[in-house]
Specification:
Layout: H1 5-8, E1 18-26, E2 32-39, H2 50-67, E3 71-76, E4 82-88, H3 93-109, H4 132-145
Antiparallel strand pairs: 1-2, 2-4, 3-4
Helix pairs in contact: 2-3, 2-4, 3-4
Length: about 160
């Protein structure tokens, strides 16, 4: 089986919340795709309940694209501690952290149900499992801690 970088990461050594560049892959045509670890809660100590995480996911899908060029996908980790962010190019960690902070501030302070995209049975595979209240609470908690630019020491 192929090695997976995130399984080699010492999850006991990181200090969430943070943004970490996992890798930048270069294609044969010269294109670059970057993968970021958007870790919102401390691994093995806290996890975001599925309803709140699902709503954060739907909001980040739009909000990150509003603040950051080249977003391909933002998908939650199965452990419910954060997200993979896949983007074209190689944006700086500062740019990604700033975009994430702006998105989470909006979720915490302003988001209404009208802002959450894709929440009907037609648009979502599990439309009943959302929690805007939970998303707002978790986003506020994460913003209050600050998004570190270093996974192994708090650099906000």
């Amino acid at each position: 089986m192929a090695d997976v970088e995130s399984f080699a990461l010492d999850h006991t050594a990181v200090h969430a919340p943070y943004v970490r560049r996992i890798a930048a892959e270069h294609g044969q045509a010269g294109d670059t795709i970057s993968n970021f670890d958007l870790r919102l809660t401390q691994p093995n100590e806290s996890d975001i309940p599925t309803g709140a995480l699902h709503t954060i996911e739907h909001l980040l899908a739009s909000l990150l694209r509003d603040h950051l060029d080249g977003v391909i996908d933002c998908s939650p980790f199965g452990c419910r501690t954060g997200f993979h962010l896949i983007v074209w190019g190689e944006p700086s960690i500062d740019d990604v952290a700033s975009a994430l902070t702006s998105a989470l501030q909006f979720i915490a302070e302003k988001a209404t149900w009208a802002d959450v995209p894709g929440v009907s049975a037609v648009e979502c595979g599990n439309y009943r499992d959302h929690s805007l209240h939970g998303a707002r609470e978790w986003a506020a908690k994460i913003v209050a801690q600050g998004i570190s630019r270093d996974a192994f020491s708090r650099v906000v």
